[in-house]
UniProtKB/TrEMBL annotation:
The lineage of its organism: Bacteria, Pseudomonadati, Pseudomonadota, Alphaproteobacteria, Rhodobacterales. GO terms for biological process: methylation; siroheme biosynthetic process. It comes from Ruegeria faecimaris. Residues 15-221 form the Tetrapyrrole methylase domain. It is an enzyme of class 2 (transferase). This is uroporphyrinogen-III C-methyltransferase. Its EC number is 2.1.1.107.
Length: 258
């Protein structure tokens, strides 16, 4: 896709967090950057409702990645950011959730900075915040857990390894991003390191969106229940948290009356 308009001055890149999908969860700063953008390079998981808020003349470029599937190469995304900005264009690099959480942000900043292009980070609501709100819980609670780990289910080398012994301790809570394909691996590692098989596990698909779904299970049944659920949207896994029943009932009510 070609952009023909050019400018004398150098362009600019805003690294913007699109939030979890609900357009009402965009920050005002993110919305302003989005509306004045001339080019938007966006992730695959950005909702159509959020993309619809872009300026009418903005060029939208899908540079999405899929875990273990066809994806844009990171170096190609870096090069495209630089190419558009050097044409004098105002570029938004739109990332789902918050760009600072598992977003490959540093590599893109390095590329833009090396080309002498100005940039800023506009944070967004990360999936964990939206997902935990969807199940009516808090990420930390006095007397339950004083910390929470943000983990990725896989990295560039495959399934990601973590400190399984620490995670297996009673009371541990973790928000696991990109954990669907690695669910059986995570389950096995935790059980191998002594985790209680009855530990609650909650999976939230399409957090904050009208089609949000909640799957309540345990570590012992996590992989089998996930396979039976046919969840195919973006899903966050909470290890060590179960939803409040009122929050789960509200999700079911919204689904039935959509």
């Amino acid at each position: 896709m070609q952009v023909t308009q050019t400018y004398q001055d150098a362009g600019h890149v805003d690294f913007v967090g699109a939030g979890p999908g609900d357009p009402e969860l965009l920050t005002l700063k993110a919305l302003r950057a989005f509306e004045r953008a001339e080019v938007v390079l966006h992730d695959r998981l950005i909702s159509a409702e959020v993309l619809a808020l872009a300026g009418q003349t903005a060029v939208l470029v899908d540079v999405g990645k899929a875990g273990f599937g066809p994806s844009w190469k990171q170096e190609d995304i870096d090069a495209l950011l630089v190419e558009y900005a050097l044409k004098g264009l105002r570029v938004v690099r739109l990332k789902s959730g918050d760009p600072t959480v598992f977003g490959r942000l540093d590599e893109e900043i390095d590329a833009v900075e090396a080309a002498g292009i100005s940039w800023q980070i506009i944070p967004g609501i990360t999936a964990a915040s939206a997902a935990v709100a969807g199940i009516g819980q808090s990420q930390t609670r006095r007397g339950r857990n004083s910390s929470i780990r943000f983990l990725t289910g896989h990295d560039m080398k495959g399934f990601a390894d973590h400190d399984w012994s620490a995670l297996a301790q009673p009371g541990s809570v973790a928000a696991i991003y990109m954990g669907k394909k690695s669910a059986r691996f995570i389950q096995g590692r935790l059980i191998m390191h002594g985790a209680d098989r009855a530990t609650p596990v909650t999976l939230i698909e399409n957090a904050s969106r009208p089609d949000q779904r909640i799957l309540t299970t345990t570590l012992d049944h996590m992989s089998a229940d996930l396979n039976a659920s046919d969840m195919d949207g973006p899903t966050l896994t909470f290890y060590g948290l179960a939803p409040r029943q009122a929050a789960k009932a509200l999700t079911e009510f919204k689904k039935e009356h959509a």
